[in-house]
Every structure is written in structure tokens, then in C-alpha cells.
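Second attempt. The first submission of Maleylpyruvate isomerase had a stray character pasted in from the spreadsheet, which I only caught after the job came back as garbage. Lesson logged: always re-copy from the clean sequence file. Corrected sequence (214 aa) follows.
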Amino acid sequence: MALQLYGFWRSNAAFRVRVALALKRLPYEEIGVDLLAGRQFDAAYAEVNAGHMVPTLVHDGHRVFQSLAIIEYLDELYPEPRLVPGDAKDRAHVRALASVSAADSHPLVVPRVRKHLAQAFGADKESIEAWCRHWGEEGLATYERMLGQRPASPFVMGDTPTLADICIAGQVVIADLYGIDVSAFGRVAALSERCFALPAFADAHPKRQPGFLA
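This time the job returned cleanly.
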């Protein structure tokens, strides 16, 4: 087995994959791609990922893109512990929760969106950060409502974390980066506390990565 992960310290999508790899105890080499410096557009990286994004997982020469696809790929190859349930109803629930962050909230705060806000609409730093806080809070509020309908005990699907817990924790990472008070979302705060008590989550946090800029 040979695993490489192209990522970036701040990337929420790379955070998700780092957690999954850690939960499955899979060793890997991480290769940094500085998104803030635009290195994702370098010709060499374009050969790796035509979408100019991270993360990219390379497994025995095979490239896999998009964090959710990567995690499901890993789950099929290395099924213990399961991150996506086998039961169809539970699997749909986990995927729906994962998509709140990965498809609805996080894509609105990524570097290319922030850059477009500045270039196309003249948004200044304060306006862009307010935009990011808004969408970060929207994701947290959605999770709070969903966890109210089906509480996590202690994690979304029971005793062990799943893809859903990884994405909810990722939404809390966005909150950390933009100074959002997570305590206003009690169920999310409690779940994320249980997640980040685990080394797999805590060690994957952007603030613990080598490139972190305080």
C-alpha cells in the first residue's frame, strides 16, 4: 500500500480526509499545495488534479478527488472502522449530514469564492470575513436542527464516528477559523467536543498542521 495526500493546512476538505485516514490508522505521505499562494494552478499540480483543488489522494498510482469520494473509496478498501453505514437508511442519513458542510456551506468560503468576491464585487477583507461567518453559521444552524431531530449518542450513528461526524467537526473548524461562537449551537458544540477529544480529530485540526499561520 502506498498512500499520498495532496492537501493544505487550512483546507477543510483535506481535514476531513486526514481524520478518515487517522481513524482507519492508515499511514500516508502528505504533500502540501499552498492554496493561498495559488500553487493549485501550477502546471505540475494540474497534472495531478485538473480541478485545481485539494485534496487529492494517490493510492498505488490511482488518483481520487473530492473529500467525500476519497473517504468512501477508503471505506470500501479498508472497511474498519466503517465511516459510511451498510444499512441504506443509515447511509442516506450520514451522507445527508455530510453534504450540509461539504456541499452547502464549505464551498461558499473556499479561496476561489473569496477571491471572486474581492475581484468581481470589490468586497474588502471585513466584508469577505462577514460573508464566511454567515455561511459558517448557516451550516451550524442546519446541523443543530438536524441533531435535534435525531440526537447524536454519543456520535451520529452511535458508539463510533462516521463521515457525518467528520463533516460536522469540519464545520466547527470553519467556525474556529472565523471566530464564530459555537456555544450558541449546543448540540453541535457537544458533539464536536466528543469528536475533538479523539486524537484522530484533534491532530487533523488546521491549527495543528505544520503550515499553520497564527
